[in-house]
Write a structure and sequence with these properties.
This protein is an alpha/beta fold. Helix content is 51%, strand content 16%. The chain has ten helices and eight strands. The structure holds adenosine monophosphate.
Length: 224
């Protein structure tokens, strides 16, 4: 039987497309080393580290963080991640400059990209998801729920959890983040287009439905 290869993946798409949810489901199924740059930055802010203090305001405004910071973060993360587990990047690269620098890093490490999983979602659905997104906080593992999901809301409250909204999920910041995506991040897809690694996936429907669509692609990537 052909040896299965650990894939080198980017999960891509607008805010609200479900990148982090899908990344989580993917690593439950395949032992891929994964990083979410947004989550990593939010944790730095919460821990009040020098990096957290440096990015706190830009993050709350929905602005992108400096390319240099992001490139060096990913570069050191990759150097420390076990090669045999492959990688899954959620939230990086987000600008063409990041994508260019990332290509140089991967060349040096001789770890070519396997696929870009491009989640596609309408603006109205993204606004609905982000506007209603809350974290059930204070009751163990982080759980993300939607305020219109009544049973999930009561489950959280009955366990003594708090429903916390991300500062960048406030209405004016949602619009800003979607605009930033359209103005800067979408161009990353154009950058990768000639390499023919991009798989566009409908991000509508339930997380499990989207996970099945993604699973089929990852399956074909790992058996190549
Ligand atoms: P996310 O959780 O992926 O929606 O990211 C939340 C926020 O983190 C973004 O709005 C940016 O402020 C910041 N961020 C995450 N990844 C990057 C990146 N690769 N480049 C610049 N800013 C980033």
């Amino acid at each position: 039987m052909a040896q299965k290869k650990a894939p080198h993946l980017i999960i891509f798409g607008p805010p609200g497309a479900g990148k982090s949810t899908q990344a989580k489901l993917l690593v439950e199924r395949w032992p891929i080393a994964a990083i979410s740059t947004g989550k990593m930055l939010r944790e730095e802010v919460a821990r009040k580290t020098p990096l957290g203090e440096q990015v706190r305001e830009a993050l709350a405004r929905g602005d992108l963080i400096d390319d240099e910071i992001m490139v060096s973060t990913i570069s050191s993360w990759l150097e420390n991640s076990p090669e045999d587990r492959g990688f899954l990047l959620d939230g990086f690269p987000r600008t063409v400059v990041q994508a260019e620098r990332f290509a140089e890093i991967l060349d040096e490490l001789e770890r070519p990209l396997s696929a870009i999983l491009n989640l596609e979602l309408s603006v109205s659905e993204a606004v609905y998801r982000l506007g209603g997104r809350r974290q059930c906080y204070g009751v163990g593992a982080e759980e993300i729920i939607h305020v219109n999901d009544e049973s999930a809301v009561s489950r959280c409250l009955e366990r003594g959890g708090l429903l916390v909204q991300r500062p960048d999920d406030l209405p004016n910041v949602i619009v800003k983040r979607l605009n930033v995506y359209e103005a800067e991040t979408e161009q990353v897809l154009d950058y990768y287009a000639p390499r023919k690694l991009t798989h566009t996936i409908n991000a509508g429907g339930s997380p499990d439905e989207v996970a099945q669509r993604i699973g089929r692609i990852v399956e074909s990537t790992t058996s190549r």
